[in-house]
Design goal:
By secondary structure, the protein is an alpha/beta fold. The chain has helices spanning 12-15, 36-50, 68-75, 91-100, 115-131, 145-154, 157-160, 199-202, 210-221, 229-232, 247-254, 343-360, 385-402, 409-429; strands at 3-6, 27-32, 59-64, 81-84, 104-107, 135-137, 173-180, 184-185, 188-189, 233-245, 273-285, 288-297, 307-313, 317-322, 332-337, 365-369, 372-376.
């Protein structure tokens, strides 16, 4: 199988090549305009090829020039896989061109950043179905062990009970993600393209990182079920607010000493750039109320990184993921009795359920806490965010080899992007 990379403006494109894949050609074609973003991609691949431990063997053939997109489409996919991770303003255009050219397409999130993009995405999925092409987005968070175990325990009725419906004021599901403009990737300080700070090109926080959170709500609460965004979704509220970036901070992560013209519209009177990277969505899915929140700070506290918080409320137990200072900034899953639930009965249910969980995840255990139990997880399962890209790619390659996605994936991708783009439209209208 052959990989083709289209305009790799985001470092996620390179992360998909951090390791080799069985049955995948080591020669990779890259179609992109010349410039710093292509250079950064090539430098990362060279770093993976020359590292001391388990180096990769990628051979990159770069096709550059103003006509790169036409040359990409003319090359024809031939059943190979196109990877699209870059400027989101052209995402639906790119993936539509890839599908038309016969490429199975693995696209970084978000695949749509506004209502018009969502409508174009729907047409792209229709085209993919007609052409027998698979289109899929990169949902890394499904491979994080604490989220997997949260989903696993929520399916064990004697432990979790039934998922509560909740309300707008008291949602049954809460997910919050904190990210940072300045951070380390593959051991080096990240360099952000200037357009990453332009929500007209990157997308607002309401339609970017929230895709992961909305995806997890669907994946955990309605496993294996196809959702219909027209009938199953109701967006009740949404709000957005900016992160202020100083000129020095911008220069630190972009290596640029001035605002580009397209960002000047967002520079405030105090000289700082306002990026609408933060947002919150309150919505109901098949009557279950959820709240997802994304926050962007410039950089994390010492020793910390991006963090995830999640609550699933059941009639017998609440399943809570925390990743704060008390957890040494590592995600940890807790089981806590819900309301007036009998703690002794819940403990017996956990003890009875644990052997089944350990069959799938050997070494997982329980430790009592003041409020319930912490699920103990062997360090080998904490592979880190970067490794999840390889896991997603390997899974997608398996789907391509099988010739189909699970039946629920496409309707649920549409439900996910309907949620985020409707939320943005609602927030902008307020």
């Amino acid at each position: 199988m052959k990989l083709t990379i289209l305009d790799p403006g985001h470092f996620h494109a390179a992360l998909l090549q951090k390791n080799m894949y069985p049955g995948v050609d080591a020669t990779v074609d890259v179609y992109a305009p010349p410039g710093p973003e292509l250079d950064d991609y090539l430098d990362r691949i060279e770093g993976y090829n020359t590292r001391a431990q388990d180096p990769t063997r990628w051979r990159v053939v770069a096709h550059t020039g103003a006509d790169f997109l036409e040359r990409f489409a003319a090359a024809r996919g031939g059943g190979g896989v196109a990877v699209i991770a870059g400027n989101n303003r052209r995402k639906t255009e790119y993936l539509t061109r890839a599908i038309s050219a016969g490429y199975h397409t693995l696209a970084d999130k978000p695949m749509a950043i506004d209502v018009a993009g969502f409508e174009a995405l729907g047409r792209a999925f229709d085209l993919a179905r007609e052409r027998g092409i698979l289109l899929y987005d990169i949902m890394t968070e499904r491979h994080e062990i604490t989220t997997i175990l949260q989903k696993t325990l929520s399916a064990i009725a004697p432990v979790f009970g039934e998922l509560r419906q909740g309300s707008v004021e008291d949602p049954a599901i809460i997910k919050e993600s904190v990210h940072h403009f300045s951070k380390q990737v593959s051991g080096a300080a990240i360099k952000r393209p200037a357009w990453f700070f332009d929500t007209a090109q990157q997308g607002e926080g309401l339609v970017d990182i929230t895709t992961h959170l909305v995806d997890l709500v669907q994946w955990e609460c309605f496993p294996g079920q196809a959702l219909d965004w027209r009938s199953d979704l109701r967006v009740a509220g949404a709000r957005r607010w900016p992160t202020a970036i100083t000129p020095a901070q911008f220069a630190q992560v972009t290596q640029l000493d001035a605002w580009p013209d397209f960002l000047r519209k967002d520079v405030q009177a105090d000289g700082n750039l306002h990026v609408y990277a933060n947002g919150e969505i309150d919505y109901a899915l098949k009557g279950v109320h959820a709240r997802v929140t994304v926050l962007w700070n410039f950089e994390a506290p010492p020793g910390a990184g991006d963090t995830h918080f999640s609550v699933m409320r059941g009639t017998r137990a609440n399943l809570v993921i925390r990743q704060g200072e008390a957890e040494s900034w590592q995600p940890a899953l807790f089981v806590e009795p819900a309301g007036n639930a009998d703690r002794a009965a819940l403990e017996r249910a956990l003890e009875q359920a644990l052997p089944g969980v350990q069959t799938a995840y050997p070494g997982v255990g329980l430790a009592r806490t003041d409020s319930g139990w912490r699920v103990t997880v062997p360090a080998a399962y904490h592979v880190g965010h970067e490794a999840h890209f390889e896991q997603v790619a390997a899974q997608f390659l398996g789907y391509v080899a099988a010739g189909a996605l699970p039946a629920w994936e496409v309707p649920n991708m549409l439900a996910k992007y309907a949620t985020t783009t409707q939320a943005l439209a609602l927030a902008l209208a307020q």
